[in-house]
Design goal:
This protein has 270 residues and is an alpha+beta fold. Helix content is 36%, strand content 27%. Bound molecules: D-MYO-inositol-1-phosphate and calcium ion.
Length: 270
Amino acid sequence: MPQMLTKRELLQHLRMAECATRAVAPLLLRWAGRPLRVVTKRSAIDLVTEVDHRAERTIERLLRRAYPTYGFFGEETGRRDAGAVYQWYVDPIDGTTNFVHGLPMFCTSIALVHRGEPLLGVIYHPTRDELFTAVRGGGSFLNGHRCRVSRTRRLASSLFSTGFPSEFRRAPRKFLKPFVAFQLATHAVRRTGSAALNLAYVACGRLDGVWEEKIWPWDIAAALLLVREAGGRATTFTGRPLRLTDDHILATNGRVHAAALTVLRRARRR
Ligand code: IPD
Ligand code: CA
């Protein structure tokens, strides 16, 4: 059984993950909005391109070269070495629909996970050159500066974001009910098109909260740690602390969490 990583080792791993996100940034910047072969996955609105695949292969190669015994769980290639104690969770492009259309809201997300718990997370947003990082117990950072969740106390004064899943067309009303309820209860609801950026923005106080259904571990592994380390709260819709295996999330600055849970509960009951 490998020893737990020391703080120093974790920081070395963080640097490696940072390098891997930056290594694929030129590829993403070069191809965003350019004609690419777009393939659909789970539904007609779940897109993937050859750039997603290329970026994931590059990240895997870099991480495996540095840490050959670790597992790898990528959105496009699935889980390998599932028995490994340390696992990399990778989304090469979160916000692929934006990427395809040339809307500059997409990022690369990498987390190191140990027994279901993220130990470190890196999210790189190349079009803004913004690097979000967190190490468990060490706080959250944006471009090297400590970041914290917002101080907003009232839901009525808050700004939220959400995303719609690839299943949206199968049950549009189900996903729109909370959207309408939050739009009525807050200053506004935004949609960035990237679950990882939504959550990173909660961590740095640009958003007060995010809810999202049908999310995947690679969407949230890095961002979940960012939110927690920035002083925020992430739960299921019943208020239980979030696990990476959960398929939905409510993440807030903590102060508006109870009120947001009430909005969600009422909207979903209707
Ligand atoms: C998607 C985005 C989107 C969210 C979806 C995700 P992808 O990830 O994060 O905002 O609503 O649930 O699957 O496909 O762009 O990596
Ligand atoms: Ca993706």
